[in-house]
Amino acid sequence: MAGKVDGFVRPGSGRGLLDVYGDRFLLKLLVRKEIKIRYRGSVLGLLWSYVKPLMQFLIYFIALGIFLNLEHGTPNYAIYLFAGIVLVNFFTEALSNSTRSIVDNRDLIRKIYLPRELFPVATVWVSAAHFLPQMIVLIGACLLVGWAPSVLQLAAVVLIFIMVSVLATGLGLMFGAVNVYFRDSENIVDMIVMVVTWASPVLYVWSMVQRAMGPWYWLYQLNPMTTAVEVFHWAFWEPTLKADQVVTGTIPPNLFTVWLPVSMVVTLVVLFLGQLTFRRLSVHFAQEL
């Protein structure tokens, strides 16, 4: 069989992410290891998954909602804000950690051969484990203000979670591989993480961007995270509004007919490019590390 010599797999000739599925047991072990290492010696442990987003929410709500008066122009602004923060935090944490995953596991990579894709994918799963308690808080807050979602809205939440996970995996594979050769890739990712929060309608409503960009608004919508946050708002924020608060401009036009399919295509392209880059560069990981 091509890529195999006497039962051994030649490095760089594996099946990429398909090997991760085949090594699910190893993936589970890596996820457990990452969680244990992250909270080793920590007093609060997994509770940091609640503390950090809640602190972000308070800062943004006070600065933008109260001081800049966005709360009065956006009904249930607290739900609107927190729904966006939860999703963006998941993406930024997954991307940041997957970028460092290969370098952080250099000792293991130098000693044995196993599918290198396991490390970025494991960090995305760890971020998903942190995402779950934040979602519980979000759902609890929504229920307090009368959240009554439809089946389609609940299905949209699952779809967006999968899309953002795939997007973070694709970018994590790409930057994780490049970071082995150029360590300043982490600085580029730090800038991306900073931009994502402001380049998606988390702290403000999409209509503000449309008024400012005019005919160039479509460029803003090409960002998959923009669409992801808008769908999250549709699923969590819109069902909390009263009948007289739901207006035509609650969600962007063509969100589901145009921008969601476009975002899914962009996400798949990013995953393909990330896997391609990773496979090309992973052959010499052990030597470079």
Structural description of this entry:
The protein is an all-alpha fold and 289 residues long. The protein has one domain (14-35, 45-288). Helix content is 73%, strand content 1%. The protein contains 14 helices and 2 strands, in the order E-E-H-H-H-H-H-H-H-H-H-H-H-H-H-H. The protein has a two-stranded antiparallel ribbon with strand order 1-2. Strand 1 (4-5) and strand 2 (8-9) form a beta hairpin. Helix 5 (77-104) runs antiparallel to helix 7. The mean pLDDT is 85.
User: How much of the polypeptide forms β-strand, as a percent range?
Assistant: under 5%
**How many β-strand stretches?**
2
Number of helices: 14
The end-to-end span amounts to 29 Å
Sheet with the most strands: spatial strand order:
1-2
Q: Indicate the percent of residues in helices.
A: over 70%
Q: How many separate domains?
A: 1
> What's the SSE pattern?
EEHHHHHHHHHHHHHH
Would you tell me the structural class of the helices and strands?
mainly alpha
Biggest beta-sheet profile: 2 strands, antiparallel
Radius of gyration: 20 Å
In the predicted model, the low-confidence regions spanning at least 5 consecutive residues are none
Task: Give the overall pLDDT as a whole number.
Answer: 85
Approximate shape: globular
Pfam families: ABC2_membrane
Subcellular location: Cell inner membrane; Cell membrane
Membrane topology: Multi-pass membrane protein
Main location: membrane
Structure, briefly:
The protein is mainly alpha-helical and 289 residues long. It is built from 14 helices and two strands; from the N terminus they run ββαααααααααααααα. The protein has one domain (14-35, 45-288).
